[in-house]
Amino acid sequence: MASEKSSTRISARGIQTREQILQAARKLFATQGYHNTSVYDLFEKSGITKGALFHHWKSKEELALAVLEEMQENFEKNFFSIQAENTRAREKIERLLRLLSELSRDPSWSYGRIFAIWCTELPNNEPGIGTRVHALKARWCVLWKDLIRKAQQEHDLRGDISSENLSFLVVSAISGVQLMCGASETESTGKVAYETLRKALLT
User: Fold this and answer.
1) For residues 75 and 54, what is the distance between their CA atoms, to the nearest angstrom?
2) Which pLDDT value is given to residue 186?
3) How far is CA 34 from the centre of its chain?
4) What pLDDT does 127 receive?
């Protein structure tokens, strides 16, 4: 019985340590990017030992891939799931932009900024992390292209610009907002930017 309680405490401590490291990694990747974040930065930011970090992950890349997996799950839940809803494409676009605005004002949601930074700094042919980041980017671009094309077909969006060009512009604008609205910006900056993008696109 005592052995079981001890094992439970160790397991709970391990889960807590793992989340502590992930939280520190998300903050560092969102401010410094992937290449400018060192293993030593992770020790210092998370307040854990080298042994504790390497107990959970063998390298910085493995840790970054764990953050990427969280990001993919978050995008799946918040964004990609919207495409399957039984509403007009225009409404889905509006929902996506409003949701991005809300999430960007949440200090605990760093995935948008990490995604924008990693798409910029990591080449798509970099094995491991780079390849997977750009696979997510490809899905993100397809999501916007499909919704914009559908909204044009439903006559809810201007049709004199190709869906490919318009979606590229929208995706670029979203990435720009994430990159520009860092910790030094006020909460309202991103909200205003997304509202401006929504009005420019949908009115």
Assistant:
1) 27
2) 54
3) 14
4) 84
- Ordered DSSP codes for 1-70: -HHHHHHHHHHHHHHHHHHHHHHHHHHHHHHHTTTT--HHHHHHHHT--HHHHHHH-SSHHHHHHHHHHH
Please, what are the domains in the chain?
61-202 (1.10.357.10)
Token digits of residue 171: 């995706």
- pLDDT by residue (tens digit) across 97-123? 999 999 988 888 999 999 999 999 999
CA gap 120, 91 in Å, rounded: 29
Taking the C-alpha atoms of residue 25 and residue 45, their distance in angstroms, rounded to an integer, is 8
Reported pTM: 0.88
C-alpha radius of gyration, the chain, whole number:
20
Cα 68–chain centre separation? 8
Distance CA 193, CA 15 (A): 38
> The tokens of 129 are what?
């992390």
Q: Which of 183, 45, 36, 24 is nearest to 118 (CA)?
A: 36
Model confidence at 6, pLDDT cuts 50, 70, 90, reads very low
Helices 89-104 & 187-202 angle (0-180, nearest 10) = 170
